[in-house]
Amino acid sequence: MKRWLPLVFFFVLVGFFAKGLFLNPREVPSPFIGKAAPVFTLPVVGDAEKAFSTADMKGQIWMLNVWAPWCVSCRVEHQLLMALAESRTAPPIVGLNWKDKNREAEKLLVQTGNPYVAVPDDLSGRVGIDWGVTGTPETYLIDRAGTVRLKHVGPIDLDVWLNKFVPKIKELGA
After folding, report:
1. Which residue from 46, 48, 92 is spatially nearest to 69, judged by alpha carbons?
2. Domain presence at residue 121
3. Fewer beta carbons within 10 Å, N or C terminal of the chain?
4. Own/partner pairs for 50-53, CB < 8 Å, 24+ apart?
5. Is the peptide bond before 167 cis (omega within 30 degrees of 0)?
6. CATH code at 129?
7. Rg (CA), the chain
């Protein structure tokens, strides 16, 4: 029996690796789904005298889009975010400017347009860590009670918007 143990162990490992091949790396489970969104207050990009707080969104369904000017994927999703903001078909979008060491966010938003109701500046990346951010872009949907209802890793495209966000937003009664 002992001589078969390594073979059994080998097949168990192969099974785990095979299962991993079929997992979607964009579907990173968030421990915050169904829990209160982490609270923060940060200065706003372009006006350090102003601050944004998650308390500002209390009673609203809203989205937190974690982005950075250096993020190529963020620029890919930017056009859709602009279209959603202009058409008012999305809840308010807050754009968490994450680890913008070169201070490019304000200039970029002037050039490309600003789909956000607020752009809090997370220069240190600490708030992103509190939210469990693993990279940019990441987008969270928060309900009226301040509970995280959805997390999407990667750029939002039309398919993701229509098949993932819209049903959840409708479910929340928006």
Report:
1. 46
2. yes
3. N
4. 51/120, 52/94, 52/118, 52/119, 52/120
5. no
6. 3.40.30.10
7. 19
**Rounded to whole angstroms, what are the CA distances from 116 to 19, 99, 119?**
39, 17, 6
Q: Is 59 within 8 Å of 174 (Cβ atoms)?
A: no
- Residue 91 tokens, joined: 């809840």
Cα 174 to Cα 83: distance, rounded to the nearest angstrom: 18
Q: What are the strands, taking DSSP E only, across the chain? A: 41-44, 47-53, 62-67, 93-98, 121-122, 138-142, 148-153
Question: Who has greater pLDDT, 15 or 141?
Answer: 141
Contact by Cβ (8 Å): 138, 152: yes
> What's the total number of domains in the chain?
1
| Tokens 């989205």 belong to residue | 63
What is the span of the domain harbouring residue 144? Answer: 33-171
51 within a domain of the structure (yes/no)? yes
